Amino acid sequence: MDVALDDVTRLERLTPPAGAVRMVLDTDTYNEIDDQFAVVYSLLSPERITVEAIYAAPFHNSRSTGPGDGMARSYEEILRLLERMNRPAEGFAFRGSNRYLGGADRAVASPAAEDLVRRAMSDADSPLYVVAIGAITNVASAILMEPRIRERIVVVWLGGNPVNWPHTREFNLQQDVHASRLMFDCGVPFVHVPCINVSQHVRTTLSEVEQYIKGRGAIGDYLCEIYRNHFTDHFARSKVLWDLVPVAWLVNPKWVPTVLEHSPILNDGLTWSVDPGRHLIRSAVHASRDGILGDLFRKLEANA
User: Fold this and answer.
1) Is residue 111 part of a domain?
2) pLDDT on residue 4
3) Is 229's pLDDT higher than 90?
4) Is residue 1, in this structure, part of any structural domain at all?
């Protein structure tokens, strides 16, 4: 696939947003418990984010029997969250792909991918930010179905590790290699949020969750419940809420500092190669744990 945008336009799109943006969220919501926090944070941040749709992404681990089952369970979890936040799901929550991208040019049709194409192409004046916090087949499929959306969107993805890390064997990336590679190769304005040394900084504990989240409405109680049930023993134990970080970059880019770098090449062995002749992307290099969690806690309190 050709690189669609010229460098000047891409750099303009990669500038951290200074105001409110349109956004869709692509999430493997039932994969563990961090996606739920990210969904809630997105919906509680209307001063910076207008969430237009939420897409269920596939996943496969001990909480699903396969990618399609993971997507279905994620969709059901999205509905549970929306119900507790008194948000209607009709025309807002969409089922995604029932499998991962099977090859570099093999799109997987789904209501999510079709909605992303329609939504991206409907407004040429305002770029649509696509925040993806799971396997990225839905987004890659939409690009393959309609390559012109690369000129209308900015993709912000949590996946893989930093370019200088020895490997990039990370859950979101390694289960969906063809789609992951497409995101780095296709030239779409792309903000990469690595896990190691970036998202892993955003950790919290059961005592903190019980103090600042429990009792903050039905959604606060639900977040506390799933956090408590995630571990059998919480003694001296914290949990990373990885998926808050891509959302936080839109809420306040200062909490997620980024740099421009050449888009790396994803090798078959799940390592990176660097070619200075490739197009530029923006990559996160840190995440402010206190800034991000403090903002979430305050918004839950205000909306209780």
Assistant:
1) yes
2) 62
3) yes
4) no
Q: What is the mean pLDDT of the chain?
A: 96
Domain around 163: 7-302
Please tell me the pTM assigned to this model.
Answer: 0.97
In a domain, 2, yes or no: no
Q: What is the maximum span of the chain, computed from C-alpha positions, in angstroms?
A: 53
Number of domains in the chain: 1
Site of tokens 């969904």: 39
Dump strand ranges (E) for the chain. 21-27, 49-56, 93-94, 128-132, 153-158, 190-193, 203-205, 238-240, 258-262, 265-266, 272-273, 280-284
| Burial zone of 164 (CB within 10 Å; 0-12 exposed, 13-18 middle, 19+ buried) | exposed
Structure tokens at 76: 């059901």
Question: pLDDT tens digit string along 43-77?
Answer: 999 999 999 999 999 999 999 999 999 999 999 99
Place of tokens 């390559």: 147
Give the lowest-confidence range in 2-6, 54-58, 77-81, 209-213.
2-6
* Start-to-end Cα distance in the chain: 47
Contact residues for 302 (Cβ-Cβ < 8 A; gap 6+): none
For residue 145, the one-letter residue type is: M
Whether residue 243 lies inside any domain: the answer is: yes
Dihedral, 61, 63, 65, 71 alpha carbons, nearest 10: -90
| Domain CATH number, residue 142 | 3.90.245.10
The 10s digit of each residue's pLDDT in 74-91 is 999 999 999 999 999 999
